[in-house]
Design brief:
Helix content: 10-25%
EC number: 2.8.3.5
Shape: globular
Protein name: 3-oxoacid CoA-transferase
InterPro entries: 3-oxoacid_CoA-transf_B, CoA_trans_fam_I, CoA_transf_AS, NagB/RpiA_transferase-like
Order of helices and strands: HEHEEEHEEEHEEEEEHE
Keywords: Transferase
Number of domains: 1
Distance between the termini: 9 Å
Strand order of the largest sheet: 4-3-2-1-5-8-10-11-12-13
CATH class: Alpha Beta
Family: Belongs to the 3-oxoacid CoA-transferase subunit B family.
Structural class: alpha/beta
């Protein structure tokens, strides 16, 4: 299991039976492959699918069956298809229980930037703003640092803000944080990762929860 798969597997543990779940682009799409068979959720895609299944094997890819990120998907029995307007009405109407999003940055208040990089053209905003405002719970899945080794958990955002609404949880390959009224709270570290490592690689301030679980194990 590589680090992105580890993050996805850990995020899948946060899903509950009956949840309607939207998976964003990147690491979030991997979550579909790690949902427990005992947990029946309904995966939603902004382009108009409710009932998305795991990633298909190459031999079974249908080029006309894709998610909002244009990646091939499967659908489960009972899946439904609808237009984009209805899909966003579901989001804006508060019918999505959990959204799992990737980010460029997240600040110590739990606000995220994930739709634009200054100086680079933007092909489209996507659904992140709507998902942040309309979802009952938002989980961030991201690598802890960027390609330059800089923390993606920062004191203040330097990329354009996606929404003033803060997320509820942040999951990286190093740690899991809860976002509270008082800021970021460290819940657990990944297997083999020390608290000192998390402190060194996190620019944002955080406190350690009384429920802190060192070296949490994920099996998948």
């Amino acid at each position: 299991m590589n680090v992105k798969q580890y993050i996805a597997a850990r995020a899948a543990k946060e899903l509950c039976h009956g949840d309607v779940v939207n998976l964003g682009i990147g690491i979030p799409t991997l979550v579909a492959n790690y949902i427990s068979p005992d947990v029946h959720v309904f995966l939603h895609s902004e382009n108009g699918i409710l009932g998305v299944g795991p990633t298909p094997e190459e031999a079974y890819v249908d080029p006309e069956l894709v998610n909002a990120g244009k990646l091939p998907v499967t659908v489960l029995g009972g899946a439904s298809f609808f237009n984009s307007a209805d899909s966003f009405a579901m989001i804006r109407g508060g019918h999505v229980n959990v959204s799992i999003l990737g980010v460029l940055q997240v600040d110590e208040a739990g606000r995220i930037a994930n739709w634009a990089v200054p100086g680079k053209s933007v092909l489209g905003v996507g659904g992140a703003m709507d998902l942040l405002e309309g979802s009952k719970k938002v989980i961030v899945t991201t690598l802890h640092t960027n390609s330059q080794g800089e923390s993606k958990l920062v004191e203040e955002l330097t990329y354009p803000l996606t929404s003033e609404r803060r997320v509820d949880m942040i999951i990286t390959e190093l740690a899991v944080f809860s976002v509270t009224d008082l800021g970021l709270e460290l819940l657990e570290t990944a297997p083999g990762v020390s608290l000192e490592t998390v402190q060194q690689k996190t620019q944002a301030s955080f406190r350690v929860s009384k429920l802190f679980n060192k070296n949490n194990e994920v099996t998948a």
